[in-house]
Design the sequence.
């Protein structure tokens, strides 16, 4: 798992515990989960529905806090950080792609990719050129002024990927990003993600049920009794 002693994982989950209380019952979802994500490496998270994949991604992406354990981003422990500091890390270091694209319907593809950059404080002109560059890179150069409803499912998902990497994150989490797509389109979207790992050395964790796609990634993990296990 170590990739050179001097290197620090982009994200390291240490002994993560997460449980939900449902009435009288306690649902222990994560129970000592550990996982290191490395720059330039794609990792597939393949586990049955309800096993805690989304929970793990949300915790690793600082969208949710664990009950116990620590999430390190670039070697920095995040549990003691303020909400403002966590939000800052989410904006600059972390990208998220969901099963449904979650694009803003009233904005064009380009505006959807500009927004996270503007929130970060970049100049409008810079956000325009960077949005054009990323959308072009993902094969959407002639779709920049389309609104989400004017795009196909695969195009919508590629815009969502462009938005997720707009601020050049160090890690990209994708929660069943091809789950709503037909096999051909899923392949296209998946290729876009793999291309980004190669080109930008972003670390990537993709929750997926698609074993064929998982097999094309650098590494496969699963969840068993609340822990992360390596497959293969
Ligand atoms: P997966 O993504 O692998 O399908 P999830 O992480 O979404 O799994 O959910 C894991 C388990 O935790 C499920 O059994 C789900 O019902 C439960 N769960 C998820 N979120 C909550 C919540 N906010 N409150 C109670 N239970 C939850
Ligand atoms: Mg899920």
Sequence:
């Amino acid at each position: 798992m170590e990739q050179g002693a001097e290197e620090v994982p982009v994200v390291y989950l240490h002994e993560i515990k997460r449980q939900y209380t449902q009435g009288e019952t306690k649902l222990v979802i994560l129970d000592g989960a550990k996982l290191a994500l490395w720059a330039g490496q794609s990792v597939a998270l393949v586990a049955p529905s309800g096993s805690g994949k989304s929970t793990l991604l949300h915790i690793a992406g600082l969208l949710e806090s664990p009950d116990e354990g620590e999430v390190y981003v670039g070697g920095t422990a995040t549990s003691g950080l303020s909400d403002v500091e966590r939000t800052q890390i989410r904006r600059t270091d972390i990208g998220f792609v969901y099963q449904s694209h979650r694009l803003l319907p009233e904005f064009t593809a380009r505006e959807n990719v500009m927004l996270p950059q503007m929130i970060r404080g970049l100049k409008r002109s810079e956000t325009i050129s960077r949005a054009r560059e990323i959308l072009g890179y993902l094969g959407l150069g002639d779709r920049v002024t389309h609104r989400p409803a004017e795009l196909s499912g695969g195009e919508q998902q590629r815009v969502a990927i462009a938005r997720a990497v707009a601020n050049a994150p160090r890690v990209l989490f994708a929660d069943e990003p091809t789950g709503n797509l037909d096999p051909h389109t899923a392949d296209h979207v998946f290729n876009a993600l793999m291309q980004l790992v190669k080109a930008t050395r972003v670390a990537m964790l993709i929750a997926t049920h698609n074993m064929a796609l998982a097999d094309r990634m650098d590494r496969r993990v699963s969840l068993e009794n609340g822990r992360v296990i390596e497959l293969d």
Q: What stands out?
A: Residues 20, 22, 27, 29, 47, 49-55 surround adenosine-5'-diphosphate (ligand 1) (CB under 6 Å). The mean pLDDT is 95.
